[in-house]
Structures are given as C-alpha cells and as structure tokens.
Amino acid sequence: MSLQHRLVDYTDGDSVFEGRIVWDDSFPGPRPGVLVAHAWGGRSDYEDGKADGLARLGYAAFALDLYGKGVRGSRPEENGALMQPFLDDREMLQQRLLVSLATLREQPEVEESRTAAVGFCFGGLSVLDIARTGEDIAGVVSVHGLFGAPGNTSGITVKAKVLALHGWNDPMATPDDVNSLAAELSAMGADWQLHAYGNTMHAFTNPAADNPDMGTVYDATADRRSWQATMNFLEEIFSG
Among 68, 82, 106, 233, which has the highest number of CB atoms less than 10 A from its own CB? Predict the structure, then answer.
C-alpha cells in the first residue's frame, strides 16, 4: 500500500485555492471520491490526516480550501474572523463548496458519478449545506458540525443521504438545534440519521481539543465510534 498525494490549485472567480488530493495507488483505476471540509481554521494537518485515512480505505479524498491559498487561522480570533463571512453569506459558502466538489470530480483518480463529503466543525455545517442545495451527491457526514439552517433553501429536496455525528453536550449545537435540524431535513425529504454521543462536547475527534470552557474537548471513544460510523455510512452509500 502506498499513499500518493498532490496539491491542486483551483479558482472561484478571482480567488485561488489550494486543496490536497490523496489516494492509495494499490487500488486500481478511478474510485469513489470524498470531499473533506475543514474546521474554522482552514485546511490543516488535521483534515489532511482525515483524508489520508479515507484514502487507506480505497477512496480518493480531497481536502478542500475555502479561505484561499495560504490563508489560515492560528488562534480563535483569527479563525472566527475567517469563518464569519461564510456564516453571514451562506450563498457564498455554498458556491465555494460546489466549486470544490467540481474540482474533486475533475481529478483522474475519482469516479465522477460517485462522490460524498465529510466535514468537521465548520466543515460539518459546510457539508450539510452541500446537501441543502439539492446537489446530486451520494451522501454527506457532518462530524461535530454546526446545524444552523442557511435560509436560502426553501422548496429544495435533499438528494444526498445525511449522517450527523454529534456530541450531546456540544454548546455550539444544542438539543434544540438538533431538533431543528431533524425537522428541517425531514421537511426537505432527506434520508437522514443522527448519532449522538453522551457526555461529549464539540471537536471530539480532534486530539488537540482541550478547552472545556469553550466546549471543545477530545473524546477517544466518540472519535473511534464516529470514525466507524463514517466508514459504515460510506460503504453503504457506495455499495450500489
């Protein structure tokens, strides 16, 4: 087994972005592609590592870039300043996500008609927004994601299967937010499921998360369970 990767420049208007695609060259030919959406700090070793894990399972994984080539946050204040414009303008976020998805589909290692997306924290909200646009994608996995509805998807039917993996004690996605997401996805006709992990906060898959005051704490058990759930989900949606 040998993982291969390359950096991929792509554009949205005048803005240039740098994603990273990774695949295992022991699997022959094009294979299902999985978009990996980053947390609020931008694409980092964390998301690249998740993409590597997906590549070892036989997928071609593309860690996207929403902020621009070389643009990254290094502390919460910077991260929030980078993310906030996209929370304020969800149409802009959705456009950039769909450009990133199109870039994944253009890669020669990817079977264009078989794609999914997995996102973490802000990336979890991002992949939910891909589904909310009605995009024809096999499925999306939101991992400790934000749940707020974008407000511009009325009347759209969700085609993607949806899996949300959620820490029940996440202060950024409360039980009321969970119920709102369930009602929203049901109204949009989605095939959705949600796994909630008790006594678990935000960012539970990130070993660097250790800030109980902010509500971001790593949890090894929830990390393991959520990865298994993700593997099961991807296997199911790509089994046809």
Answer: 233
Residue count of the chain: 240
Give me the sign of the Cα torsion angle 59, 6, 2, 226: negative
Single out the residue of 25, 23, 20, 24 nearest to residue 9, CA to CA: 20
The answer to whether 114 and 65 are in contact (CB under 8 A) is no
| Dihedral over Cα of 83, 89, 92, 97: its sign | positive
Report whether 31 contacts 138 (CB < 8 A): no
What is the model's pLDDT at position 97? 98
pTM for the whole thing? 0.97
Which residue reads 């935000």 in tokens?
Answer: 202
CA 141 – CA 60 distance, rounded (Å): 16
Can you give 162-202 as a three-state secondary structure string? EEEEEECCCCCCCHHHHHHHHHHHHHCCCCEEEEEECCCCE
Instruction: Give the Cα-Cα-Cα angle 86, 88, 93 (nearest 5 degrees).
Output: 30
Domains of the chain with CATH codes? 3-237 (3.40.50.1820)
Residues in the chain with pLDDT values less than 50: none
Q: Which helix (H) or strand (E) holds 46?
A: helix 45-56
Report the distance separating Cα 128 and Cα 130, nearest Å: 5
- Would you list the DSSP string of 95-135? HHHHHHHHHHHHSTTEEEEEEEEEEETHHHHHHHHHHHTT-
pLDDT at 24: 97
Q: What is the DSSP string of 4-41?
A: EEEEEEEEETTEEEEEEEEEETTS-S-EEEEEEE--TT
The span from the CA of 94 to the CA of 152, in Å, is 10
